[in-house]
């Protein structure tokens, strides 16, 4: 089955390395799990990985993104471009 979701890998970052989603540095906020997730295939090995969906919020907005820790302290971040 083809992967038809709209989540795209946007970055791979070491935990704490600045990364902004919709203007918010994700490391400056508590990540709240939404309880939702999606699957993405590794481009090389074609293995499906479960990606959890998180939200962060400041006074003005709530930002949603996907993230998975690939190795200790190294995160792959996903944005849903359908929502943007």
Structure description:
The chain contains no helices and seven strands. By secondary structure, the chain is mostly beta strands. The protein has one domain. The protein is globular and about 40 Å long.
How is this structure best summarized?
It is built from no helices and 7 strands.
Question: Which properties best describe this structure?
Answer:
mainly beta, five-stranded antiparallel sheet, globular, 84 residues, two-stranded antiparallel ribbon, single chain, 58% strand
The largest sheet has its strands arranged as 1-7-6-5-4
What count of helical segments does DSSP give?
Answer: 0
How far from one another are the termini?
Answer: 25 Å
Count of separate structural domains: 1
Characterize the biggest β-sheet. Answer: 5 strands, antiparallel
Mean pLDDT: 88
- How many extended strands? 7
Helix content: under 10%
H/E element string?
A: EEEEEEE
As a percent range, the share of strand residues is: over 45%
Low-confidence blocks of residues? none
Kindly name the structural category. Answer: mainly beta
Globally, the shape reads globular
Topology (elements, then pairings):
Elements: E1 7-14, E2 20-21, E3 24-25, E4 32-41, E5 48-57, E6 62-71, E7 74-80
Antiparallel strand pairs: 1-7, 2-3, 4-5, 5-6, 6-7
């Amino acid at each position: 089955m083809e992967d038809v979701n709209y989540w795209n890998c946007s970055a791979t970052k070491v935990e704490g390395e600045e990364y902004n989603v919709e203007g918010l540095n994700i490391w400056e906020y508590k990540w709240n799990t939404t309880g939702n997730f999606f699957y993405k295939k590794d481009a090389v090995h074609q293995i499906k990985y479960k990606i959890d969906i998180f939200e962060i919020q400041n006074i003005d907005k709530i930002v949603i993104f996907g993230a998975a820790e690939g190795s200790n302290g190294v995160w792959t971040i996903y944005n849903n471009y359908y929502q943007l």
